[in-house]
Fold this protein.
Amino acid sequence: MKYKNIIFDLDGTLWDSRNTIIDNWNRILLRAELISKPLEIDDLNPYMGLLAEDILRDIVPGISSEKLEAILMEIKQHENKTIREKGGLLYPYVAESLAYLKKGHDLYIVSNCQDGYIEAFLDYFGFEDIFKDFESYGRTKQNKASNIKSVIDRNKLNETETVYVGDTQTDFESSKSNGLDFIFCAYGFGELETEKPNYIIQDFKDLIPIL
């Protein structure tokens, strides 16, 4: 077995939560008069996997630091509650593939989401026993590369036996900075620049023959 440990990104890799979260963003931003018209689902595509504060700064140029912090707090509080209640769209074959992979691998999640978001995802789908550990930007305020390293260090993972699975350039760079192989999910939200991942999958179940 080449890879004993598999670390996953979340948005664009395991699921698509845009339909669930966009109503929350629209309600809060429209009420605060920070946008003039509701955001559409596809408006979120370039932002999936990015930090919430960076998304808000781009959507609302010139927003003050005080206003940004207040709006972010409201968005995050409501978003985790909504995710736990309504979930999101799990990509095809994710549930079956994770259950299969769990039999012979240790599974982890590292995401740039807010604190509580991964927990809400796990709770909604009943995946608490699937993943051995997870980390998020919201909990550590560290970038993805640092959070991957934290998961590696505290679980004493061997880098040569560990692979990261994600859908963005940041995922690629973060995995490589930790000496990990990278599997790119072409069905996700991001694109790679000139670098070549170790593997490219068009469907989640394509992981099975690789792993």
Observations:
- The two ends are 8 Å apart (CA to CA).
- The chain has a mean pLDDT of 93.
- Strands lie at 5-8, 15-16, 89-90, 106-111, 133-136, 162-166, 181-185, 199-201.
